[in-house]
Write a structure and sequence with these properties.
8-stranded mixed β-sheet, 11 helices, Spore Coat Polysaccharide Biosynthesis Protein SpsA, Chain A, alpha/beta, 2 domains, 11 strands
């Protein structure tokens, strides 16, 4: 097809050469090859550069980029998008990949291309497609989980999850901008999806491929049954989180997303409820863990209010009680 869109890719990697090798191998086996790939190495790893060179040696187009610093996934994806935009037309697409989450099937990219083209024909406002995603509830500040019963056909969503083979239309990226670098880590897909929606675009998940992957993963024991998954989700919602660096970025970035989306009231409720009251309530049950979480949350709230963005906490940091 001479009029088929070009498919580009950005892969973020950080000192996981074994996973990177697997992901590049899976991309090389795709029935629909990418027209170009940018691998952004946040770890400045010579092994990563060599793996990209091997990929190119198979006759595939790719560029290794060492930004010289750890930009996080948000920064890496933004940098890769910026590198590819000048090469792309408005109806081309950019796929985003994490180095530890290769495409599940060899026809994954081909199926995604077919779905993307179909959705643009049915809905010209389509700005992104994937095979998993969610919807955000601005009243609670939580992502609404989409149940198995709804996962069929084209599923309307407002953001695509990282493992969901996200593909973004070039026209949408040019209007809404690239990923927001200063988020560094956490909710970068959510922020971008909501920004696309505010810019007038629609997002869809391919429910057929989503259901196919979930069924295969459950058959392999990689996912729990639906009822167990829901129960775990509910149990997790009342449990005090481990006081690690990921939690810091998630809370800080969530508050930013809520405020900039025009929901400052929800941001206040999240900061007070999840950030302060929840660990205080759990002081009796687990005083050390609750106190550590309180300190972490207060740091995230303070940095949000002060506008301190970017890599403000080093990955691996854990708050002590």
């Amino acid at each position: 097809m001479s009029d088929r869109p070009k498919l580009f890719g950005v892969m973020a990697t950080f000192r996981r050469p074994d996973w990177l090798a697997e992901s590049l191998d899976r991309l090389a086996r795709q029935t629909r090859r990418l027209d170009d790939l940018v691998v952004v190495d946040n770890g400045s790893d010579e092994k990563a550069a060599a793996l990209v060179a091997e990929y190119v040696g198979k006759g595939l187009a790719a560029t290794y980029v060492d930004p010289g610093d750890n930009l996080g996934p948000a920064g890496a994806f933004a940098l890769g998008m910026e590198r590819l935009l000048p090469k792309a037309g408005p109806d081309d697409w950019i796929f985003l990949f994490d180095d530890d989450d290769p495409p599940f099937y060899d026809d994954a990219v081909e199926n995604a291309e077919r779905f993307a083209v179909r959705m643009v024909e049915q809905d010209p406002a389509t700005g992104a497609v994937g095979i998993s995603g969610g919807r955000f509830d601005f009243r609670t500040g939580r992502v609404v989980r989409i149940g198995d019963a709804e996962i069929t056909g084209a599923v309307p969503i407002d953001h695509i999850t990282g493992p969901g083979l996200p593909a973004y239309r070039i026209a949408a990226i040019r209007k809404a901008g690239v990923f927001r670098k200063e988020l560094f880590f956490g909710f970068e897909e959510l922020e971008f999806g909501l920004r696309l929606v505010r810019s007038g675009f629609t997002l869809y998940a391919d429910g057929d491929q989503w259901a196919r992957r979930k069924a295969d993963k459950r058959a392999r024991g990689l996912l729990p049954p639906e009822e167990v998954s829901v129960a775990r989700h509910r149990k997790k919602s009342i449990k005090v989180s481990d006081p690690g660096w990921r939690r810091y970025y998630s809370l800080r970035n969530l508050l930013l997303i809520l405020r900039e989306s025009g929901h400052p009231g929800t941001a206040v409720r999240v900061a007070l409820g999840r950030g302060i009251l929840k660990p205080l309530v759990n002081l009796v049950i687990s005083p050390r863990l609750a106190w550590a979480n309180l300190r972490l949350n207060l740091t995230a709230i303070r940095d949000h209010l002060a506008g301190r963005m970017g890599r403000t906490v080093e990955p691996g940091t854990v708050w002590d009680g």
